[in-house]
Amino acid sequence: MTGATSIPCLSGLHHRRNPLEDNPFFHPSNGFYINPSDVILAQVAYDLSAQSQSRVAYHRAGPRREIMYEPSAVKAAIVTCGGLCPGMNTVIRELVVGLWELYGVREIYGIPAGYRGFYSMEAVKLDPKAVHDWHKKGGTVLATSRGGFHLHKIVDAIQLNGFNQVYIIGGDGTMRGAVEIFKEISLRKLEVGITGIPKTVDNDVGIIDRSFGFQTAVEMAQQAISAAHVEAESAVNGIGLVKLMGRSTGHIALHATLSSRDVDCCLIPEMDFYLEGKGGLFEFLEKRLKERGHAVLVVAEGAGQEMIPRNESQKQERDESGNPVFLDVGVWFKSVLKDWWGREHPDELFTVKYIDPTYMIRAVPANATDNLYCTLLAHSAIHGVMAGYTGFVPGPINGNYAYIPLEEVALTKNEVNTSDHKWAWVRSVTNQPDFETNFKGQSL
């Protein structure tokens, strides 16, 4: 059996003819508009020998023949929250241009400085002329911040300012906040469409194929790996150490390693590893240095955090979003590598070159692929909200764009599966040890 996962609709609005019918750039024909019964399957591979299989499906994204908002009555708000990510400005730009050019909306506002901007700052009026070159800029012109989530203040501000469409761009924490905003707006029975556009350079948002900015991040990460490889290769017993973003998932490290082919060992949060003893990292690196004279080590920022010594204050520390504050695994690794070599080979040359490209990666404009992706996300969001949907996230599932319940996305993580073929591919490229199997073997 297949049934589309339910997306709430605003019930107090009235059906209207879609203005795309009269748009000079579009010529709607058969198949142009999405039918209410059109769905995207969450899973496309099935075992035909299985007796019965339940299928999860989502409403297909795209323009509807009828819309629920009178464009002249729309007052839209756009907000960016959390850390920077390539493509944020592109999403803002395409939301503004799409609302303006596709549907004739003229009241579009940017909320500065994240969630706190709703109740503490003046909204900025936006139009296509104001945002025309934003896609060429890194960061977010609207400015962003972490924290500042005060639910009732935010919803009060939405109500007071008369916003009836709210586009929220942010990561998993921002999406959880968007769920609360959606629920509070529903509780107050306000006719306000809420949509979240997931932004996380780590690619840790679940269900959708990928987050915007991820491909740009992998491309930039490769440059850091190439530099580390040159440094390591140019030294006697040189190690190039690169720390990449990835608090809870290692997607950037994994994909950059596969793309680069210069990496000798990739460490990610989903995989345990150990340093000393048979089958450990030190033994592997020593062997690699003897064979090649150099090595490149890529580590995601969340990997090995439990191995770094902390005092009680550091254990309790949280950032403004409520996340545990991580210590710099790259600095720690550089220190332990030098201590290890000095202990084992006191009279031999050894160099560790540490590269942390985090802020370089976050701050760059989106590449061509991500720019196109951001446009499709923005337009999918607009079509959904104008059709009366609310509490949803637009995104690709198996290459097709769908509307996914906001809460479902907020609660689902996209972690690297170290048992699947992609991680096996990483190990075949790097020839690194299977640390988990080795550790279990030592424990027997």
Describe it.
- By secondary structure, this protein is of the alpha/beta class.
- 37% of the residues lie in helices and 17% in strands.
- It contains 15 helices and 16 strands.
- The strands form 4 sheets. Strands 1, 3, 4, 15 and 16 form a 5-stranded mixed sheet that branches.
- It is elongated and about 80 Å long.
- The model has no long low-confidence stretch (mean pLDDT 93).
Layout of strands and helices, then pairs:
Blueprint: E1 2-4, E2 16-17, E3 39-41, E4 55-60, E5 66-67, E6 75-80, H1 88-103, E7 107-111, H2 117-120, E8 124-125, H3 128-131, H4 151-161, E9 165-170, H5 172-187, E10 193-198, H6 214-233, E11 238-244, H7 251-260, E12 265-267, H8 281-292, E13 294-300, H9 312-316, H10 329-344, E14 351-355, H11 358-363, H12 368-386, E15 392-397, E16 400-405, H13 406-411, H14 421-430, H15 435-443
Parallel strand pairs: 1-4, 6-7, 6-9, 9-10, 11-13, 11-14, 12-13
Antiparallel strand pairs: 2-5, 3-4, 4-16, 7-8, 15-16
Summary tags:
alpha/beta; 37% helix; 444 residues; 15 helices; single chain; 5-stranded mixed sheet
